[in-house]
Design a protein that fits this description.
Mean pLDDT: 80
Strand content: under 5%
Structural class: mainly alpha
Number of strands: 0
Order of helices and strands: HHHHHH
Largest sheet: none
């Protein structure tokens, strides 16, 4: 119970710190700077910490594979629904990727601890790594398809 409460408090503290920082720095703090900070500092830190919590076994190999399977199961119908709803390719691309892009690291790991205990950290870390690859490969491709050809994307 104590771990769950601390994890939930951490999530809200993280959100409040982001809100306060944006209010203080206003235009000096761009989302690009935050993204670079997250990708090059927070993500590796969270990943190393996540891997330090448990020994990897063969069952852990399937976690990212299951995650990728769920992503594709959700993505394929979303692409077709987007084609029906939106005529603008950029709006279609945003609609398609919005369903699977999430903060599985900085927010997802504390929520995993809150919901499932500390034994879930290795699983949320593996899902976070798979999500990073999905977002920075597939997500970037789908989003760029809203403005460019298949070849340029």
């Amino acid at each position: 119970m104590k771990e769950t409460l601390l994890s939930i408090i951490f999530v809200y503290v993280f959100i409040i710190l982001g809100y306060i920082a944006k209010r203080i720095f206003k235009e000096d703090m761009s989302s690009k700077t935050l993204t670079i900070f997250s990708v090059y500092f927070l993500q590796p830190f969270v990943t190393v910490w996540g891997f330090s919590t448990a020994k990897l076994s063969m069952e852990h190999i399937f976690v990212p594979i299951y995650y990728l399977g769920v992503i594709f199961i959700v993505l394929i119908p979303t692409i077709f629904i987007g084609k029906i709803i939106f005529s603008d390719p950029k709006e279609r691309a945003i609609f398609s990727i919005a369903g699977f892009v999430g903060n599985t690291g900085n927010i997802g790991i504390p929520l995993g601890i809150a919901l499932f205990g500390e034994s879930s950290v290795i699983y949320t870390t593996l899902i976070n790594i798979a999500n990073v690859f999905v977002v920075y490969i597939l997500g970037v491709y789908i989003y760029s398809r809203g403005s460019f050809s298949i070849k340029k994307s």
